């Protein structure tokens, strides 16, 4: 199967990347179901890239129903080692204005009922999420955003909510009091699953509104007003970033499972070993 080193998961309004060449569209199946849509495999500025629209073309999937495990697993099966996530967000900070970008370094999980791990079914692993984003990839995205000439904020905490309804004002004020910088519905469980898959993951948060703490109700109309601008900016950053990503990884993401697997291989049957082979095969006996 064709390979790509960089994966891009597009958010609201980002359904394709112009300039990709040698395009091959793949419909994949995984042990965790089918991804959100077909994956567009090709090259961008000479770099192998796999693009996946998180909500599906035409924006058909609500945040709670995004098949995140299938999405990450499918990208892993294509050889992806770095994932750039594009996430639309509201802001809790006056200085983080609509139209700005933020590269987060922390996340608070307020989602409910989403499956956030590949493991279970008789196999246990506990990865570290102390620092949920790859610092090396985040640095590349920050540098690329600055090169693109946009206002970008370095570091910040992403509050992941369930949705699809926006926050109540009470919730918004609470999250702001916690010190969160931005709020969105799609970064988790993507970041957790990418870590379990030993893939470097970082996000470009595109700010569209101030949430409702600022005495302004959030609406789709407000978000759409900034989305077109943000999508064009995100595409430019992706084009700049892919050429800056190092060929060899020196971060801890690449070995996140090395000491995380608790279940002894002798207690895994052949069916379990086959199911999890792509993720943990290099760490266990296959006989």
Summarize the structure.
The chain is an alpha/beta fold and 287 residues long. It has helices at residues 68-77, 135-147, 169-177, 190-196, 220-242, 270-275, 277-280; strands spanning 6-10, 21-26, 39-44, 47-53, 82-91, 101-103, 106-110, 152-154, 157-161, 182-184, 200-209. The chain has one domain (6-283): Nucleoside phosphorylase domain (Rossmann fold, 3-Layer(aba) Sandwich), CATH 3.40.50.
Provide the descriptors you would attach to this structure in a database record.
alpha/beta; 287 residues; Rossmann fold; 11-stranded mixed beta sheet
CATH class: Alpha Beta
What is the gyration radius calculated from CA atoms?
A: 18 Å
Average pLDDT works out at: 92
Number of helices: 7
Number of strands: 11
Q: Which sheet architecture does the biggest sheet show? A: 11 strands, mixed
Write a structural description.
The chain is of the alpha/beta class and 287 residues long. Helices cover 25% and strands 22% of the residues. The chain contains 7 helices and 11 strands. The protein has helices at 68-77, 135-147, 169-177, 190-196, 220-242, 270-275, 277-280, and strands at 6-10, 21-26, 39-44, 47-53, 82-91, 101-103, 106-110, 152-154, 157-161, 182-184, 200-209. Strands 1, 2, 3, 4, 5, 6, 7, 8, 9, 10 and 11 form an 11-stranded mixed sheet that branches. Helix 3 links the parallel strand 9 and strand 10. It is globular.
Sequence-ordered SSE layout with sheet pairings:
Elements: E1 6-10, E2 21-26, E3 39-44, E4 47-53, H1 68-77, E5 82-91, E6 101-103, E7 106-110, H2 135-147, E8 152-154, E9 157-161, H3 169-177, E10 182-184, H4 190-196, E11 200-209, H5 220-242, H6 270-275, H7 277-280
Parallel strand pairs: 1-4, 1-5, 5-11, 6-8, 7-9, 9-10
Antiparallel strand pairs: 2-3, 3-4, 5-10, 6-11
